[in-house]
Every structure is written in C-alpha cells, then in structure tokens.
Batch of 2 targets.
Target 1
Amino acid sequence: MKYGFFDHTQKEYVITTPKTPVKWINYIGTLAFGGFIDQNGGGVICKGDPAENRIVKYIPQLPAAQMNGETCYIRIKEAEGYKIFSPYYTPTLDTYDHYECRVGLGYSLFISEFFGIRTEILVFVPLQGSQVIRTITVKNISDQKKQVDCIPVVEYSHFQAIKQFNNADWVPQTQMSRLIDKGNGFKILKQCAFMNLGRAENFFTSNHPVSSVESDRAVFLGDHGYGSWAAPGALQREELGNTQVNRGDNIGALMHHLGVLGAGEEKTVITQLGQVKDIETDLALIEQYRDPAQVEKSFTELREFWGSFLDAIHIDTPNESMNAMLNVHNARQCYITKNWSRYLSLYQLGLGARGMGFRDSSQDVMGILAGASAEAVLLIEKLLSVQKRDGSAMHQFNPLTMIANVGDSAENEERPKYYGDDHLWIIMATCAYVKETGDFAFLDKQIDFYEKDKDENPIESASVLKHLLRGIRFTHDNVGRHGLPLLGFADWNDTVNLRTGAESVFIANQYGYALKELMDVLEYKQDKENLEMCRHYYEEMKTRVNEHAWDGEWFIRYFDHDGSPLGSNRNEKGKIFTNAQSWAVISGFAEGERAKTALDSLRKKLNTKNGIKLSWPGYNRYDKNIGGISSYPPGAKENGGIFLHSNPWVMIAETIMGNGDRAFEYYNQINPAAKNDIIDEYEVEPYCYAQNILGDEHPQFGLGRNSWLSGTASWCFQAATKFILGIRPECSGLKIDPCIPKTWRGFRVKRNFRGAVYNITVENPKSVGSGAAEILLDGKAISGNILPAPESGKHYEVRVRLG
Ligand code: GLC
C-alpha cells in the first residue's frame, strides 16, 4: 500500500509516511475530554464542547508542514551547537530513516528514526480522563553516545474557540500562565484565561524533572516572533526563558534534559496536557499519571473498552476489506460519530454555532446499538429532550448547555424554521434501540419536551412512546397540496431550500419507514389503537406517493411551492435524485416493477465506479430559489456529487429487492479500505468513510473530502450487517435474512444479542445469495427466520442454508 497498510492483528492502520496527500487523523478521548490528532502529532483538544471549552489551537487551513497544535522537539548536543528535529517530522521536516503513525483504537502510536534516535510516542486519553497522555520514549540507536533533550510543546487556544479568531486584543489580554513547583521534582505549567482561574485551568506537566519552561510564543520562536517553528530561537540556548505570561499568544514548552544516552540506551518521559477546575485542589488527578504503572493500567483499560465494544459483532466473509471495516474501522467510526456528531473534525471545525445535529446524532446512534446500547440510550434521551411539543425537533443543540437552535434556517427570514425530517429519525433510532435490547420499558420513560416557561422549567413531559407518536402526528398534519409532507427549511438534503409550501417525497418515504418501525413495536406491545392509526397513516401516504410522485421511470424528489416537480425528467437540471428511489423501496411504498424500475434508473443515471451520485445533472449556476445545492459546481457535494451517506440506502433497497450482487457491488465500490490503488486520486483516510467524493461531472472525479464525521459510517455498518449479511434485531428476536453476492460460498458472524452470543454460519451451496431454506438453532430447525429471544448468558450455534 502506498501510504500505509492495515495491521489486522493490532487492529491498527499504519501510516508509513508523514506526508499523506492531506492530513489523516485519529480521534482520542470523547467529547467529555478529547479531540483528534493528525499523523504529524498535531491536533485539537477540548473538554465538553469544542466551541465553548477548547484547549489547543489547531488551524486546519495552515500549510501542512507547519506546527499545528502540538509538537515535540528532540535536541542533540553537538560540538558546534544543537541539532534539533521533531520526531513527528513537522515542523522541522528532516530526512527520516523510518516513520510510522499507527492509528489505533483511541490512541495513536508514532515511531520514527532521525539522526540515530528512535522515538516512540504513544498518545491517548484514559477512559473518563481529563488529560492527554503522551509517553515519549527516546532511544539512542547509533553506536555513539548522545546528549539528548526532549522538549514537548503545545499552543493554546482561547476557550471560546471562535473568539480566538475574531479578536486579537481582547483574547491575548485574557490569557495567562504560571509555573507551579510543588518541590517534588516535577513542575506544572498552568495556563488559562484569566476569567477561568479556579474554574477551568489547563495544565502541562510530565514525570521527569523540567529544568526550564516557556509560555510566550514570541519568546520561544525568538527574534520578536520572526523565528520559526522549524528552528525556534529558544532551542539554541541551553535553557528556556521561563516566561510566565500575563497576556499574549500562549504556549507551553517543557525542557527535559535526558542526559547522555549510550548506544542502545533509552529514556521515557510521560507528559500530560489536560484541564481541571483548580490545579491546587485537583493535584491528585494529575499526580497519578506520573506513575508509568498507572499509565499502563489506563492504556490497558482503554484497550479493554474497545475490545468489548468491537466484540459485539464479528464477521468473517470472503471479502477482506469488508471484514476489516466491519470488525474494526467502520465500527470505530460509528462510535466516533456517535461521540462527535458533526461537531469537530478537520472539516467541521466546531468553532461556533453548530453543536450536535439532531438528525445526525439520531442516525449515528443506530450504528453503535450492538456494542454500546447503554451509551446509545443516553444520547436518545438527550435528543428526545430537544423535541418540541408539536412533535418536530430543534435542529441542533449544544452538548454542555443543552441549549438548542434551529440551525441554518435562522438565516432565512422567509423560510420555515423547522427541518421536515429531523423528528422522524429519532423514531427509527428509538425503535432500533428497543429491537436491539428488548428494553420495551424505555417506551414508558417520561422525558420533557424542549419548551420552557419563563423560569426555565419544562412546560410538558411525556412518555417516550408519546414523543414518537407526536413526531408521527407532526408529519401527518403538515402536508402540502399533494398530501405529501411539507419540506420545512430542508429535509435530509440540507441544501435544497425551497419556498414555503414545498413538499418532500423523501420525507414521505422516511415517514413510511418510521411508521413501519413503530408498527413493529406497537404490534409487539399489542397497542391496537395506535397500531391501527399508524396502519391507516401508512396506507394513506403510500397511495399519495404512488399517485403523485411517480415520474414514469423514477420517483420525483420534491414539489415546489407552486406544485412543480424537482427530480423529474421534465427538469433541465436535477432530473433524478438517488434518495427518492432508495427510500421509496425502503418505505415499502414502491413495490414490484415500479421499485425495480426506480432502482434500475438510479443505476443507469447515477452510479459511477466511485459511488452513487446524489443527483444528476448538476445545477450549473446559483439559483436562490433552490438554495445551497446550486452554490457548488456540478459534481460537488449535494450538487451531483457522490454524497456517500446516501449510498448505503441504495444497498439496503437492493437487498429488499433481493439483489445481493448489486448491494455488495455498491458496498465495495465505496469501501475506503479497497481504495489503495486510487489513493492519490481519493486522498483521504482509507480507514474511515468520507462524507463526499467528487462526481463525474467534476474535473477531479474521485477526490474524497470530509472524512470521519458522516452518517455514512452508521448506515454502511447497518446496510452491511443488518441487510447484506442480514442479521437484524426484531422485537421478538434476531432475524436471519442474508442477501449476499451469489458467488459467495457463505460467511460467519458472531453476534452478541440481549446478553447471549450467537455463532452463525451461513452457507450458500446453490449460489442463490438469499432466502434461508433452513435455519438450525443448536441443531434444531426453527420455523420462519427469527431466532426467538435468547436466554441471557447463553451461547447458541446457528446454521443457515440458503437456497
Ligand atoms: C451533512 C449534514 C447532514 C445532512 C447532509 C446532507 O452531512 O451534516 O445533516 O443530512 O449533509 O445535506
């Protein structure tokens, strides 16, 4: 592989060069404390909220070679002065003998060799910890003695991330640092905004004597700040300047003299960068991690956490890339999106208003149900608490304050202030949660709606089931001239913002699927009244979609305020949209020939070798009447780009139609783990999904962007495990309904479900790919394809024969 390879035994991706086409990152910690780290050791860290409590300044727009956030210098004393280099390659850019960044589960491990020094740096955040640990081991691999220093450096941000960039007087005036010396041989460099003293104090410290420090960036770089990160003036002197600042651009730099290392000799320094309320009173939280044994224990706990999360589903199929993604990397990405929603990445910068997305998190949660259902339900509760009394939902919320907002719709006075789809996703997520866990009692839990009275007390509370029914009711009651759901400001496609009165065929289908999911639950609960109501709503919408939205060869995507279609053969641009086809099948509204024709048209008009485009042809000039979609050139993002999030929906639709070959073809063509041959064209990480790839109307067809935080993660995981492999939780038990490529001889899955373990072997002797002819549960044939609810703690053997 060109820039790296998968190390399957370590569950790591190993980046073998510091210079990837764009930065490739990994996540450490969680939203409670954590952030991301790139393959050059830089990254961003925050506590609780990237916008409201940011610790490290990281600017993705900087040239790649620059110091960004954090780095470390190694210094070798030579007769004529010091040789200085960074074991992370940037910002000194020296020639290296070896470079490796191991992207692990919740950690990155850097191994590099420069000038006879091998450095290994393990970076992670302990579970529930409030500090980044970096264990830096410096080894002399030459045959000569070397006198070596190690100087880790961090650059701080103002805690309110956006202010850092829009005020260059007030921000520096608020910043300060102090050196704390407790006389135990260690030093702590404290940094914070003056107003955060005793409330949120950052600390940078290590478990090795520190002979000097620096916290003023200009002093460290030297020459009034005209010195550079590549050759900081301060590193030409034996000791740092010990500046404790009362203002300015704050950094932390710690001078560690490691002494003379003989050939083969090594020394380890463990640094901590974190935040506590008050360093003086929270000292114990810091002191504990000076002990290497504690650090090792915490690292083991982290590995155990990931081990148990991944243990929930383990697959073994004939396709290596699929195995790598489902067993490790896609599962991990699901957990990352669940934590970070669309808040903090190289592309979604977490600086200001955005917060957690309602629709995004509702979908993310569905990707972690098997491995982390307890965390999932907490997020589901949060989401339900920003649902409004009328059943619609607030579009985004800030995780620290739980204050929600209406997203971009606030910017357009004339348009509705809600998104037509948001509230329907939480119905799907909640139903998926109860199907996974069997926790039907959750449906009775009381949760407040978002609205508050003048004293900030919630106005109304209702059971979870009532929240869901309110959501159904909202869509039922808010329909347009064809009886199809009103679009609101937008639906899943944020960028089509039509005038008030426009209708969305996507929402109609989404509503259909949400109703189906809810009907499963109501039927199981024997709630006849609500079941009848939902059945009626379902049939009513099915009729309307088929009556009004069929265009002849495919389904229309929207009707504008005046009733004219978008996504119709009659349109000059935007003739056909993927989601109108896939979701018509997922909802069950499209059946038989019509469903097949819709998916065939999609294949003909929208499929490319790099994935399925969202629409075609792209709008070729800005049109304020349709909004954001026309702000990109044709082939980019929502305007005819390959918007990956919508690809797994097509896979699911194809499995519903029994077409495993196509479902798998669509799966494989976007699998990042299978992109090595075109990685220079694709550019982004091969170990997680990106949000978008430029489509074939764009000159850079194949270029990926916006990796990591995308609904693609959750839906690809669901499409593959629940629909292609077909292991799908239902209310009464686990359904076995594979739809695989005909050429596969079979596959195996180990699946934890409601406290039991299923070892499932599927055989496909007649090359049919779907339809179980026989299912043996512990040797006994079952009728139907749903394994009955298990006994917790038991292991079951399941043998399935297709054909
Ligand atoms: C982005 C948004 C998501 C939206 C999608 C399509 O990924 O985060 O909410 O559904 O774009 O517009």
Note: The chain has 18 helices and 42 strands.
Target 2
Amino acid sequence: MAAQETVDHKYVYDFSEGNKDLKELLGGKGANLAEMTNLGLPVPPGFTITTEACQAYLATGQEPDGLAGQIEAHLEALERAMGKRLGDPQDPLLVSVRSGAKFSMPGMMETVLNVGLNDQSVVGLSAQAGQNDRFAWDSYRRLIQMFGKTVCEVPGEEFEHALDEAKNAKGTHNDLDLDADDLRGLVDAYKKIFLKHTGREFPQQPREQLDLAIRAVFESWNAERAVLYRRQERIPADLGTAVNVVTMVFGNLGPDSGTGVAFTRDPGSGAQGIYGDYLANAQGEDVVAGIRNTVPLQELERLDKSSYDELLGIMARLEEHYKDLCDIEFTIERGKLWMLQTRVGKRTAAAAFVIAGQLVDEGLIDLDEALHRVNGAQLAQLMFPRFQLDHEFQPVAKGIGASPGAASGTVVFTSARAVELAAEGESVILVRRETNPDDLNGMIAAQGILTSRGGKTSHAAVVARGMGKTCVSGADEIEVNVPAKRFTVAGRTVNEGDVVSIDGTTGKVYLGEVPVMPSEVVQYFEGSLDPEHIDNALVRAVHRIMTHADGKRRLAVRTNADTGADAARARRFGAEGIGLCRTEHMFLGDRRELVERLILARAADEREAALDALLPLQRADFEEIFREMDGLPVTVRLIDPPLHEFLPPLEQLAVNVAVAQERGEDVAKEEALLAAVRRMHEENPMLGLRGVRLGLVIPGLFAMQVRAIAEAAVSCARNGGVAKPEIMVPLVGAVQELETVRAEAEKIIAEVVGDSGVEVLIGTMIEVPRAALTAGQIAEAAEFFSFGTNDLTQMGWGFSRDDVEGAFFWRYLELGIFGISPFESIDRDGVGRLVRIAAEEGRAARPGLKLGICGEHGGDPDSVHFFHEVGLDYVSCSPFRVPVARLEAGRAVVESGGSDSR
Ligand code: PEP
Ligand code: MG
C-alpha cells in the first residue's frame, strides 16, 4: 500500500493545474505562473515540480519514485502542445529550468536557460530564428556557461575569462560585436573548459541536461548563500524549492524583441502610474547583469505600441485579480508578449498604507482587508524621524538596516570616547568593525551605531534594537581602523570627530550631517495635521485604517507613563489610560537621598521623617498624572526598585572609608553607612529585596504611597476631575503577600476617601512564575492582574534581563534557539503559557477580573495578537508604541476571523 502511494504521489503539475494558493507546494513563481495561465494570459507553457519532490530528494539524495515518469509525461504533453521536441535537431523545443520557493529568495538559487541545445539543435534553432546563427550560437554558449557553473560547479571566472579573450581578439568590449563565428569558437572554448573541470564532454542528450539541471536547482536550496539568506530572513530550512520547467522565449532575437520588469503602482510611495524598465534585444539575465542601460517602460509605447497596450491591459487585469500591487517580468519575442512572472510586490511602509487605502477606494478590498495588509512594524517605521534627502546627499556605503531611525553625529571609535563626548552633549555615532559586550556603555551613549561586519542578528543589531537605537550593521565597504581612529570608504577617509549620518531603515551611510525631518505620521497623531484637510495620501490612509482598527479592536490600549508629559502625549496617541506608572522613577534626582535615608534608617523616627518628606512630593506627582488622564484609569504601581539602584555603590564607599581612615579623618558616619550598605548588599538584586518584599520590610513605605494616591484622587475629584486610581502591588508570589498589603491599604483608603465618591481598585502584577501558577488564590485578593512579562520572562527562562541580550543572545539567534529575543516578543509556548494559566485560573476564581499586560511585550505586534487570543482586557506600552498596539489589536480581530468590535 505504501509503495502504491509513493508511485501515485503527484510531484509534477502542469501550469494549467495549479493556482496562486498553492505556494507551499509549487513555490511562489510556479503558483503564480499557474494563476496567470488560468487567467488566459500569455504564459509560455510549462510545468512545475513540487517542493515535496525537492524535500524528498534532499532527504535521500535521490529523486523520489515516480518523479522521472511524471516529468516524462509532462514533457511529452508540452512537446505536443508546442509541436516541437526537446532538442530536436530541426526545430528544437528549449526550456528554462528555474527555482521558485514559497518565499521569494531573490538570486539565491539557480536557473539554467536554453536546456535542449546541443551540437545539432543549435543549427535547428538558427533556422527557426530565420537563419540567425549568431543568436543560436550565443544561446548555446550561454547554456554551456550556466550549466557548467550551476550544475557541474565549473568556476564561472573561466567562462568569463574566455569571453573576455574573444572580445579582446575582436578588439571590442561589447558582446554584441561578437559574430556567429566568434561565438562558435567560444562554444569550443567553453566545451574545453567544461571537459577540463568535469572530466567529461558537455552532455548532448537533452533529457540528461534537463534531469541534471533539475537536480542542481534542488541542490541549490542548500547552497551556502541560500542557507544564510534563510537564516537572516527567518525562512524555515525544510521548505525546499519547486522547479519550473518553462518553454524558452527569447528577448534577444532582434530589435523587435526585449525584456522588462514593471510594477502596477509605485512600490516606494504607492502612487498610481506606470513603473518599470525595459531593455530591447536582451534576455532577463542581461538586465540583472547591467550590461546595458534599461529605458523607462513608457519608451515601449514608442518601440512596440501593441505590446505596450497589451502589457498595460494585463497589468490592470492582474491588479484587479490579485487586488494588490503586483510586480511582473515579461519578455517580448518578435513582437509577441510573454509573461514570465508575477507576484504581489514588496513595498515600503508608506506605500503599504497608501495602496491599502487606494484599493478600498477602488472597491477592490474592504477596510478589514486593508487592515490586514498593513502592520505595526510598518507603522512604527513611519513614526521614526527621517532624513530630508536631496541630491546633495549621496550614500557612501550601504549596510543592513539593523535598527530603524535616522541619526547624525560625530564619529567615534571607542566606547569610552562615545561616553566622553555624549557627556559633553554631543551626538555621536559609534563606529566599530563589530561590537561586543564591552561596547555597551558606548552604545548607550551614542545616537547611532555603525559596523562594517555582521547581519541583522549581530551583537550590534540585537542590542541596538533592544535600546531602540539607530543601527546600520555590516556596511562592508567601510574599512574600520580603530587604532588609527579612522575609517575609509569609497576612497575617502573619515577621522574621529568628522560627522556622518546613518539611516537604520535603509542601511545607507552618508558623510556629513543630513537634516532630519519629523515624521508626518507622528504629527498627525500629535494632532497637528488634520487628515480631513490636508493633501497627504499617507496621513489620510493612516487615519482611515487607524479609525477602522479602533472600531474593530477588543483590547483596550493603555500606556506606561510616569510623568504628566508622557501621559499627555500618550493620550494624544490614543492611550485609554495608564497601565503602569512606575513610582520608583519618581524617586530619582533630588529625592534619591530621601529614599536612601528611608532604606537605611535604623530608627523609626528617622524613617518617618523621610516618609513625611516624601508624601507631599508623591501626592503632587499623582495629581499631575490624574489631571492629564482625567476620566481614564491610572494604574499606579507601588515602588519596585532593585535596591542597589538606591544605595551608594559598595566598593566606592569602602574605598572612600579606607582612604579617609588612612588620612586619620573622623569616619564614624561613613562607617555606619558602609555597614548599612553591606547589610543590604545583594548578589542578585533583581531577585532580592524589591517590590512587595520591600514594602513588607520597610514599615510605612507602601502606606505613604497609598495615602498619596488616595489623597491625590480626592483632590482631583474636589477640583471637578475624575480620577480612577488602580493600586498595583509588584512582584507578588503568594496571596499572603498581597493580603497583607491589601489589609493596610484598605484602611488608609477608607480613611482618606471617605464619601468623596472616589473608587480605588487594588490589584497585583503577575510577574513571578509562582504567582501565575497560584493565580486562582491570588485573584481572591486582587481586583485586577497586570502581567509583568519582563520579569515573567526573566524568571521563566532564568535569564538576567539586564545582561543576557547583549551578552549572548546573538549566538542563540544565530543557532535558531529562538527566532527573536523573548524579551522583545512573547515566548508563547513557555512564558505565554504562564500568562494563559493565570488568566484562566484568575477569572475562574473571580469572574470579571480585569486583566492587562504592562511588560515591554505590550507594544510588540506579535505579542499583542497573543494577548488578544488569551482574552486580556488591555495592553499597556510606551507612549510611542500606543498607535502600533491600537493597529495590531484591530488586526488581531480581523486575523482571528472575528467581527468583534467594541
Ligand atoms: C515587568 O516586569 O514586566 C514590568 C512591567 O515591571 P518592570 O519592568 O518595572 O520590572
Ligand atoms: Mg517587573
């Protein structure tokens, strides 16, 4: 039975058998060729060998059973349809053998053209082409070259060298000057090269050529560059490529032939129009090789009006059919147009929004689909400031856009210098060959980071993204010389102190300071651009799609903010409350000393004095925030600092005391402080006395904060405002911790609030795995949960959140242990599972329990979808990510097939 199944398994599809939805099986190219064939468009006939055949071949090193027979049958059908036979001496059918995976991997895999040519059929091809010997021999030499290089690993340079020699002998630089005799001679030379490297003659059997070419395309899936590209683009390694066997059509048969590429709209801006390039008397590979300059597609109207009109008609038809921007490749053979490829085209972030909006206007898609077509990463890109480029600025190098943004600054080569200059208020760009954890301080100080080595997962890239800092990595035209404090690029030398500008979105590097302009999209969110009254297609499209997302989403979006200014900005960006106000941020600067006194106090009166001083300051902090968030909920988290952030550094203190003692000074006070700091010193402050633990250990600390919150809310109400405070207890692991804090807090609240009408909720963060696992118990004492996924990730994985990303995550990413840092995007299987358990058990114990998330993941697009799935009520994120979260929360509804709206 199993054997029978293998024999019957279908590995080859005629173009008329496939369709655009079969990309997994037929690859993108094959699926779309099939789609165009079925639309009745002029596609050269052919067939596709499936990715499953490739997978089977790569697993065993052999073509699967049945494949050879199926290829034979499809080839015969093709020959019948064309009225020609592969390699027929009189009138040969020639085919191209092209790779085509599910995801586009441009130029990474192999193609062999003109399969079917040999010493006899070359004559037949010439006859077919109207006794065009030059064309026939040129086609033959191209076959030997491509076949030799791709299938038999003959070094490509040898062929190129022979071609150069032929041109030299003729005294020309142009291929087109070689005549039929020259090319015949070149074929002989190529055959000798082939023999020398392979120990065999160039195969004359067309079917053998075909089989070997198919094999080579299968194998090119695992070529080094393809493997690297997949890793970079996170394309799974086991998909395999399909192979398309397509009847050859020739764009190089004379001036009435040619080849081109086109987009149905501008992929840069989304504007409607005709965008493309055309090259007369050429094949596609000539365009790629840049042998001659292409002309704008509009020129084709003059050269061949009927093909041009037909092409425009087809492009309109494709757009209507795919309901999207398409890019195409075509060839004209003696006035006859052929479509060689189409696919939904890549586009910039701006074009994605504009096109989605246009397609809605044109009635091709609805707003749900428009929402599906854009994403939060694109929106985030549109919110970065951009370079204002004019012709004056040309890039001197291009690397990988590793972390978006636009940054200009003084070049420095060491972390120390970056820190020094930044401290003087200068904007600096840290330039390194590659970075390592020792560069961390410099990276923090720098405005941007530029490296000459390393990809999207290099240390520089990962760390910069984590910090939200602009980074261009792997700009390999740049020669960095750190000891000499300079780099060279394009024949220029840039010394420390010179200014460069880097674009972390495009990867481009400019000399000098390129002016930066604020994003229009941010201006729109800020309320300074009115979408109804400006002629800006992008802003109007963003407005329209955001409005739809807001109408769709079930998740509310709050913000993490600890100042009135941040709260106000987030509100303009659409935040519907504060999900996390980190009160420890309110104790920095001048107030640090008060907190230090409080923590180190040994006597009650010392402690109370510090608390009394802090109370009015805190009350004022909260009043400001409640005012900005009038009418909206504000979650205030009780203080949660890792202790070491508020204590003087132990080593420094010990040295100071020792030096003072040496000098015979009176150090009694310093010694007492040193003893206290020693007493409180922790090896792992992130796992130490922080959060609720600190509140339970230092009497009066949480009570002071609760009082300040309640008093601020009452004062807000008295002034006619509406404050909705939600007090949140951090780092709870056991319900008893929460119950203890709650009992004290309730008393204070009752006393302060009285009959003012103010309502104060008390809830907890879920950020310790134990809390997630005992959520049912904890919910008994909590009116809400907010998931602290930063700590939950730290403690779920056992990764120190302050250290690991810069230290070794690049290696984990390289090894594919995870595809993205779990601190950046929620680890659904592990940490996400803890969230799910806590949500379910919490709600089971307390129906209606309010659930939110306030870790960094609250603004990460994929994580927002996960939180939607789990059924949380809101996500909370930094002000700048609020629009991204709104958009993704809407997309989550559309993508889960729901018509949820709020
Ligand atoms: C968290 O742990 O996810 C959280 C929001 O708290 P913090 O980052 O302040 O520890
Ligand atoms: Mg935390």
Note: The chain is about 45% helix and 15% strand.
